[in-house]
Amino acid sequence: MGASNTPLYDLVELQGLNAYATYTTTPGGGGDILGFVDNATYSDNEFSNSSTQINELNETWDADNGRLFIEGVEYSITLADPDHTNVTITYDGGASTIDLTGDSFSSQVVFIQATPTGGGSARWFMAVDDSVGDLPDITSIQIRALDYTPAGGDVQINLDENNNVTVCFAAGTMIETHAGLRAVEKLRAGDLVRTLDHGLRPVVWAEAQELPLDNSMRARKNAPVRVHRGALGPGMPTRDLLLSPQHRVLIASKIAARLFGSDEVLVPVKKLVGHPGIIRERRLNRVTYCHLYFGTHEVIWAEGTPAESLLPEKDALFGLSASAQARLATLAPVTPARPIVERGPDIRELLRRHKKNVKPLVDPKLVNHTAVEPLLKLASNS
């Protein structure tokens, strides 16, 4: 079957790739670890791979023709495995350490040299097997021996799962509740929040976590996206909105209907960066992210903007605390509130058409205004 633009999550970009070397990220930026890359895809002819699953990486010269794609650039790749030695990774800001090993037949970690097919400078990446789980806030990677010529030009490793997803609102975000606007960090289980589809719904579970953004790697991975006032449409948001990069917002337009068969879709806010008024906010040293779960997937009103509540997908749980993962993992599957669009090319085409036709990403005529009006009124009085 083969991989076909299959998402290749959680690539850690390095400044180079050498055996018996230690790569670090230092407070204040710099170092040899450049950051995470989460918008890569991979294609090949390997029968055990598919459009949703990667069980094996293949070098480009191999008959299975592995290729890497990042932001529209195609790369040819060569691979290296740990050659039965340990790769020691320090994470949790230096508090935790793990040793990974493997070879081309089964590896916990793989290193990739990627060269643009159209010419340009090579890039180097590390990827970790899904079974290892989340390794947040990596501070050092110590490499020992490397096998630059893996058997058959391939490495067997599972790489299709995003181990670092966090879907949440930054503290200070004002949420529409039965009692008006309230800061998200003050909401607790039982509080009634206004939803787009089901009126007032009680919060089932809420949690907040503070993350450091004090070096370049952390900032690239976890820095929030700032949606400036009015960037999505009239009064949306009513003031600047800060969201985690993976958080999805509602796009409502006739253009979306033509592209996706639904005039309302959910899109990760990080994929909207570059659209007028939407940027990555990298000036913060720390951020507190707040999660809201309602027992169902809801679209709620944050700073006058329709945005999703927590959808407890398997991938999304990795960004939560261990206790939250244990609790939410036992829940029955939840149906997404709207179709989810995440492919980069699809979203770029959506944005291109909106810019060309000078149309807002959220057409007020296409969403339920019963929840918007009190927000606008309260905002105007504040």
Counting helices, strands and paired strands, the structural category is mainly beta
> Helical percent range?
10-25%
Mean pLDDT: 87
Number of helices: 6
Q: What would you call the shape?
A: globular
Name the assembly state: single chain
Order of strands in the sheet with most strands: 1-5-7-8-13-14-2-4
| Low-pLDDT residue intervals, each spanning 5 or more residues | 369-382
How would you portray this structure in words?
The chain is mainly beta. Helices cover 13% and strands 34% of the residues. The protein has helices spanning 216-222, 254-260, 314-317, 322-328, 344-357, 372-381, and strands at residues 6-8, 11-14, 21-24, 33-37, 40-43, 56-58, 67-70, 73-80, 87-91, 96-100, 102-103, 106-107, 109-116, 123-128, 140-143, 154-156, 169-170, 174-177, 180-183, 192-195, 199-202, 205-212, 225-227, 241-243, 248-252, 264-268, 278-280, 286-293, 299-302, 305-308. The chain has an eight-stranded antiparallel β-sheet with strand order 1-5-7-8-13-14-2-4. The chain has a four-stranded antiparallel β-sheet with strand order 3-15-9-10, with no helix packed on it. A hairpin with a 2-residue loop joins β29 (299-302) and β30 (305-308). The longest helix is centred in the C-terminal third of the chain and has 14 residues, at 344-357. The protein is globular, with a radius of gyration of 22 Å. 45% of the residues are buried. The model is unreliable at 369-382 (pLDDT under 50).
